């Protein structure tokens, strides 16, 4: 991660000092729900708003951008660090997921803003046992990531609902890299009628355009360099959307990506932002997203781009 990105994010949050008086330290770390609720009650009782950033740790500049925005818009910021077992259908993938609480704390300290870290154990979050609830998300959980990873979004929704119950935030911040997950969380809040505003935040990228992800740490230097082709192809496809039939454009994009040795494309699609369903014509859609997932060195990498966003890149 470049120091320039961290410096920029620190500048964004420089004026944030609203809830420092409510905490005993610049960074409070709690491991159980009871302590978290007790700490947050001090802020809520004084009418302070709470911004929440759920993560699975292995933090990077993308996470810092979410925390910085939450700091600008709320009196208190909570970031959860919890690798959720129920959203992994592959045990090996769970075991390989990077995790280092001390490194995460050090990175968060670079923001120089007060933050509450909630780092529970699996037993704390799932005292009844490691299983997910079953949700009906009107089909948006059955396509793309859901099709390739059965049960994944039930696991995501289960832990997010649990975390929302603990934190009871006013606003929750999610990166747009996991665009389908963002849609799932918004649907969860709607269905459960939770008084939470869910906000999608722009993707933070490496110098070569690769979307920042905790999983990137599992890639070799060679693969990190190669992975720049993902964003390059997304931008190219967006530029061709008006002139090339979508079925042919998908085919060309996948071929372009798979020219990279060892890279496999799971999907590359133009979808409706509202339904996530694939588009079948080149008609100009007001809200269109190109979504993709690829496998490189055994690591699943997600990315997406909005057609309107692409015009400004």
Outline the secondary-structure elements.
Elements: H1 3-12, E1 27-30, H2 33-44, E2 50-55, H3 61-73, E3 76-81, H4 91-96, H5 101-109, E4 115-118, H6 122-125, H7 145-148, H8 152-167, E5 171-175, H9 179-192, E6 197-201, H10 221-226, H11 228-240, H12 246-257, E7 264-272, E8 288-296, E9 299-306, H13 307-311
Parallel strand pairs: 1-4, 2-3, 2-5, 3-4, 5-6
Antiparallel strand pairs: 7-8, 8-9
Structure description:
- By secondary structure, the protein is of the alpha/beta class.
- The protein folds into 2 domains: 199 residues, Rossmann fold (3-Layer(aba) Sandwich), CATH 3.40.50; 98 residues, Pantoate-beta-alanine ligase, C-terminal domain (Pantoate--beta-alanine Ligase, Chain: A,domain 2, 2-Layer Sandwich).
- Helix content is 40%, strand content 18%.
- It is built from 13 helices and 9 strands.
- The chain has a 6-stranded parallel sheet with strand order 1-4-3-2-5-6, sandwiched between helices. Strands 7-8-9 form a 3-stranded antiparallel sheet.
- α3 links the parallel β2 and β3.
- α11 runs antiparallel to α12.
- It starts with a helix and ends with a helix.
- Percentage of residues in DSSP E strands: 15-25%
Radius of gyration: 20 Å
Shape: globular
Average of pLDDT: 89
Compute the number of helices: 13
Short synopsis of the structure:
Helices cover 40% and strands 18% of the residues. With 313 residues, the protein is α/β, with parallel strands linked by helices.
């Amino acid at each position: 991660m470049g120091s320039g990105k961290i410096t920029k994010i620190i500048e964004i949050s420089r004026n944030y000092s609203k809830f420092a008086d409510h905490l005993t330290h610049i960074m409070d770390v709690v491991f159980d729900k009871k302590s978290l609720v007790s700490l947050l009650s001090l802020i809520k009782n004084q009418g302070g708003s709470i911004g929440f950033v759920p993560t699975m740790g292995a933090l990077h500049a993308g996470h810092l951008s979410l925390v910085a925005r939450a700091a600008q818009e709320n009196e208190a910021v909570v970031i959860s660090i919890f690798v959720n077992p129920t959203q992994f259908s592959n045990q090996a993938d769970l075991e390989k997921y990077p995790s280092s609480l001390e490194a995460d704390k050090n990175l968060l300290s670079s923001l120089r803003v007060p933050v509450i870290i909630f780092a529970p154990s699996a037993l704390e979050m799932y005292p009844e046992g490691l299983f997910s609830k079953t949700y009906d998300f009107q089909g948006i959980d059955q396509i793309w990531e859901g099709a390739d990873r059965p049960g994944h979004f039930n696991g995501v929704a289960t832990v997010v609902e649990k975390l929302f119950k603990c934190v009871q935030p006013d606003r929750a911040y999610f990166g747009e890299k996991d665009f389908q997950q963002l849609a799932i969380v918004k649907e969860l809040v709607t269905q459960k009628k939770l008084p939470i505003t869910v906000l999608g935040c722009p993707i933070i990228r490496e110098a070569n355009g690769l979307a920042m992800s905790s999983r990137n740490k599992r890639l070799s230097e060679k693969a990190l360099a190669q992975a720049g082709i993902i964003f390059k192809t997304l931008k190219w496809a967006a530029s061709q959307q008006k002139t090339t039939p979508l079925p042919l454009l998908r085919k060309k994009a996948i071929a372009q990506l798979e020219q990279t040795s060892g890279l496999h494309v799971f999907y590359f699609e133009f979808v409706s932002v509202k339904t996530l369903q694939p588009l079948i014509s080149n008609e100009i859609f007001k809200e269109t997203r190109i979504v993709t997932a690829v496998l490189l060195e055994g690591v699943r990498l997600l990315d997406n781009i909005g057609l309107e966003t692409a015009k400004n890149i």
